[in-house]
Amino acid sequence: MSFDEPDGYRDDLATTRGNGPRYPTSALPAAEIDSGPESEDGFGDSGREDFGGNGGGLDEATVPLRTRGRLTATAPGEPESPWRTRGRRTWRFTRTLAVTLLVLVGLAGIGNVLIHHYPRTSTHTYAYTNVQRLLIAIDGNGSIGVHGADGDRVTIKTTDRATLLEPVQRQIISSGGWLIISVHCPNSDCSSKYDIEVPHALSVDAMMDHSSEQADITATGLNAAVRLFTGRGNVTVDHLATTSDVSITANGRVQATDVSAANLAVFAPIGDKIDLHVTGDIQTIQNIRVTAGQPAEVSLSVPAGGYRISCVPAGHCNGANGDITQDLSGSVHQDPSATHNIQVNVVQNTAKIMAS
User: Fold this and answer.
1) Which of 24, 40, 127, 343 could be joined to 310 by an S-S link, Cβ 3.0–4.6 Å?
2) Quick check: is 171 in a domain?
3) What pTM does this model have?
4) Does residue 218 share a domain with residue 322?
5) Tens digit of each residue's pLDDT (9 = 90 or more) over 97-109
6) Chain centre to alpha carbon of residue 246
């Protein structure tokens, strides 16, 4: 298609191009716009074709218009908004504060467990002299072991297990020949165990009560008066020879081996087994009394000879020849005129009495 060019057409076209681009170019960097040294508006004349010649096209760079998102961006070199800076600082502070609080709460929880619920173990040793009688009483969990030894020194070794804020409460008094040890455990996590070495001739009173765990008492190698009591545990006595009294009370098993005493009393209210081996000369024995508070296995061995034997209920104490209360000729037999007494109280089960 051809048409006649009006006069001055090309001059008007050149003037229009010289006035600058028809589209905004502020969004482009200057380096991308500048295409020639001879053009101040970013357009060069080189390579341009006229509208009439070879059918050419647009020779100007097409620049996209700014969008809403581009308007909010910060241009290079432009300072950041104070509100944005303040928001970023506030977020960093809030995040740091939250992390710090979580760490503090975690440390507080761990500290509470370590202080109130995590038991620690400690050991202590004490030594005393000029002691004729020992009294130890433990209120709580633990154990007591008393062992006779040569010499005149009393040595106490303790192993305590308790929390930091609720330790074992212990008081030791040595006065007038007495050595008194008083121990209290404030909770079930606490325990106090004692290994005590004493002279052979030292009288011993050992008591344990209010324990939530097994609380055993052991006494060996003594030749003086002994009284043992445990509210929840077993009692073991070995190599004990005395002309005084021996008293054992245990809510557990009682095991006595090689025991010789003028008066021996054993009471096991809820024990399931009582095993006593009495040795020595029958002339040193005055009274032997055994009481089982519930059905228990009871066995008693004593030096051979005649005893005045009492059994409750009747017919529940057997010897080598059946009912020992009716046996008048066995190695251990009934002798109504004897000064050595045996009294056995059992529940349901039958006690066995034999010669040691």
Assistant:
1) 343
2) yes
3) 0.69
4) yes
5) 888 888 888 777 7
6) 38
